[in-house]
Amino acid sequence: MTPNTPSTPRHSGGSLGARSAAHLWGHFARHGEGITPPVITRGEGVRIFDDAGRSYLDGLAGLFVVQVGHGREELARAAAKQAEQLAFFPLWSYATPPAIELAERLAAYAPGDLNRVFFTTGGGEAVESAWKLAKQYFKLVGKPGKHKVISRAVAYHGTPQGALAITGVPALKEAFEPLTPGAFRVPNTNIYRAAEDLADDPKKFGRWAADRIAEAIEFEGPETVAAVFLEPVQNAGGCFPPPPGYFERVREICDEYDVLLVSDEVICAFGRIGSMFACDDFGYVPDIITCAKGMTSGYSPIGAMIADDRLFEPFRDGTTTFAHGYTFGGHPVSAAVALANLDIFEREGLNDHVKTMAPAFRSTLERLDDLPIVGDVRGEGFFYGIELVKDKSTKETFTADESERILRGFLSSALFDAGLYCRADDRGDPVIQLAPPLIAGQAEFDEIEQILRSVLTEAYTLL
Ligand SMILES: Cc1ncc(COP(=O)(O)O)c(C=O)c1O
């Protein structure tokens, strides 16, 4: 066979959707008769376009990723320039200029003594790396029993088997049990569904929720617990911001029990809440930050675990190694793109834009409160969840059957058909997740509100 006569044709014809259905295995996707995924071919600013040329408002920044918006030529140029200079070299005992510069820059943005940057290719690997570091660190400082981790109910922390064990969504884990042992759950900060005596007092609720972490550490034995993994604003379940005083108390608890506080900022970092790192938005200093998504605005994949100097100390004796890494971790092209992306953040004042416009985003979405299907509108910065309920006065949620019919069967595609890309999610109670690119303004907020209003009004009639 000559190189010009491949054994299988490149494609068998038909639409891109049909070709996708034939060979592409979607992530977290259903497959089967009649299911063809929408095909997105182009992006420009806050908009994406499909293969039929239809335009949609990107209400989720891809997947909480495209902070600076789509179609930025300068990021494509930064990638090309680095690929021409040095497309690839690993960080396995070597270094590259863009990885060095990006590590310096992230350390400068990070609070406290979080000065040591370990690169990955994405968020789940950053979480995985943080747990492994926590285990090895405690072995090296003479506390080898400390290996367990604590995280919150319904929280999503990624899909590698360690990160998945930290994830608090049973339905995502069932198929892969047994997972890495040693991960335990505490309640999240969903005040909308808090017990009656706590729901009207956010401070009291925050104290209660934080104290559950101390309780879990006591239950497991402080000498066995290594780390607590928390998002600044929890995504899965529908955007749970921390109540006042929550992180202050968590920090106290972690210090008291010598347990590492890992701020999982895979979604919240890089301006989503208004600062480079969202721990700054909520006034706490973690021991480790995990981040990814917005670091390059998605123009190339990368993630990072940023550790406090103290955690790196036992690894600087000349012989001790963190025996962990990824071929593509800190890829030079991705690191160069991240630097160019962060330049855009600085030049265009994106974080200030988010801080300035966040109240308008909130009040625009809160207009939806008048709809009977909207139970709660919650979030921070450019990161919101709208919880849908069957009965607003009792907060009654949908049955599994109604969720399937309304959320999956109607809402997801109806919103998309109406020109809004976002997510209807039911990992906890059903919510619509919104996180537009950080360049969005009032015009986009209004468009989101109008599309949601019309589609949610129709959804209610299907109940
Ligand atoms: C908080 C959090 N941690 C970890 C992850 C996993 O990141 P990735 O999909 O890049 O592996 C995600 C993904 O959405 C996330 O939201």
TrEMBL record:
UniProt keyword Iron-sulfur, yes or no: no
A GO molecular-function annotation: transaminase activity
Gene3D superfamilies on file: Aspartate Aminotransferase, domain 1, Type I PLP-dependent aspartate aminotransferase-like (Major domain)
Keywords linked to the UniProt accession: Aminotransferase, Pyridoxal phosphate, Transferase
Domain of life, source organism: Bacteria
Keyword Transferase belongs to the record: yes
Pfam families per record: Aminotran_3
Entry-linked InterPro entries: Aminotrans_3, Aminotrans_3_PPA_site, PyrdxlP-dep_Trfase, PyrdxlP-dep_Trfase_major, PyrdxlP-dep_Trfase_small
Family of the protein in this entry: Belongs to the class-III pyridoxal-phosphate-dependent aminotransferase family.
NCBIfam families (alphabetical): PRK06541.1 (NF005102)
Name listed for the protein in its UniProt record: Aminotransferase
Classification lineage: Bacteria, Bacillati, Actinomycetota, Actinomycetes, Mycobacteriales
